[in-house]
Each structure stands twice: as C-alpha cells, then as structure tokens.
Amino acid sequence: MREDPLYKNRKVITIGVVSELTGLSERQIRYYEERKLIFPERTERGNRKYSFSDVERLIDIANKRDEGVRTYEIRQEMLKNKKKEDAKIRNQMLRGQINARFGIQKGKN
Questions:
Q1: Alpha-carbon torsion 82, 11, 29, 48, what sign?
Q2: Residues 15, 26: contact at Cβ < 8 Å?
Q3: 24 C-beta neighbours (distance < 10 Å), count
C-alpha cells in the first residue's frame, strides 16, 4: 500500500468533525472561511471538506484570536508568509535551472 506523503493536505474531513477536533463552532469555522483564513473544498452537494492542515490552521487561528489578534492581522501574516514561501520556491527553481545550464551537480564544488 502506497502512503501519500501529503495526506495532511487531502480534503476529507467534514465541518462537524473539524468542529469537534478544534472546539470551534461550525459558525466560527464558516466565519474564518468568509475572512479568507481557511479554504475548504466543496463536494458536488456543496458540503465543505477540510484537511488535517486546515484543522491545524484553525487551531492556530483560534489561539491567536484568544490572544487578541484580529482576523485582519492574521490574514496579513498569512499573506506575508505565502510571499516568503513563494520567493523561496522561485529561488530554488532558478538555482536548479542555473545548475542544470552550467552542469553544476549538487554537493560538488
């Protein structure tokens, strides 16, 4: 049996289960979706499906809210972190292209 290394990102959990796991009400979870802090997928019937990564993110959001952080500030932090991650990936891709172009092998000087 092949194990998916990205199982945490598979959207398979219903909002009711997410509510039980996080201690948040379904209304709070939907509110965080409205504020663009969480992005569930929808089934053909319109039901929301979440991943384990989403559950972790919701717990992090709830903890920050308990500390008094506003949803706007959480969203800004998420955007900033995404830009950093995008830049890191872009740099890795460019480094790979340069290495391939000039025949540089990883680990050799």
A1: positive
A2: yes
A3: 21
Q: Does a structural domain hold residue 69?
A: yes
Q: Can you read off the two tokens belonging to residue 69? A: 């952080």
Residue 2: inside a domain: no
Residue 34's domain spans which residues?
A: 7-102
pTM above 0.90, yes or no: no
Entry field: residues in the chain: 109
Rounded to 5 degrees, φ, ψ at 26 are -60, -35
Q: What is the pLDDT of residues 34-52, one digit of tens each?
A: 999 999 999 999 999 999 9
| Tokens representing residue 46 in the block | 């319109």
Q: What's the total number of domains in the chain?
A: 1
